[in-house]
Each structure stands twice: as C-alpha cells, then as structure tokens.
Model the fold of this input.
Amino acid sequence: MTDTLSAKRDTQRVLLYAEGLAKESRKALTTEFNQRHKGIPFNTTPQLLRDSLLAWYTRRDNNMKLTTESINSATLGEVRVTFRAEYKKATFKLHAHGKFTLTGGSIDSPCYMKELNITIAS
Done:
C-alpha cells in the first residue's frame, strides 16, 4: 500500500519539476528565437523549434529524455511539437505551441516568434 502512495508522490514531484523546467525553457527559447532567429523562413521553424527544445533540455537536465512524437505546422503562423518525456520512472507529454508573425502570406515568408507555450500533460 505504501509503495503505491510513494510512487504517486514521486510522480507528482517529477511533474512539478517538469512544469518548472517548462516555464524556464519557454523564457529561454523565446529569448533565443528573438535574438538569433529573427526573420527566418516559416517553413524552417518546426524543425528549428524541435531541435532548440531538445538541445535546451539536454543542456539543462541530461536525465530528462525527450522523444519527438509529432510536429504540426498545418496552420500558417503556428507550430505544435509534441514530445514523449521520461524522467526517473515517470512518463508524460511535453507540448510546445509556438505562434509566429509572418511578414508575407506564404510558407517561406520571414517570421518572428510572437508567443511560445510549453505545457506538461500526464
């Protein structure tokens, strides 16, 4: 009985830690995109956002394992990336949703990050 309660508490602690990392990564990646990736073509943003998230989490906590599940940029100006995350014995989803301002109406128009949300789901 206590093992189940202990496992639940451990999972809750991991999720709280992951939410803290998500907030930290959102701030860091928003700054990075606004400084280093201004005006990049929108069609390059899905891969760049995915790579940036993976690199940031690797630098920040090498024990957090992220595996890309999906990348969606079907809506012009929006990119959604979903990861399967593992930390200790807990698994959860990490969702990144970036909104970009485009200077033109095509997929290869220069864009600028307007907003980045990163959420954790158990």
Observations:
- The longest helix spans residues 2-36.
- The helical segments are 2-36, 45-60.
- The chain has one domain: 2-121.
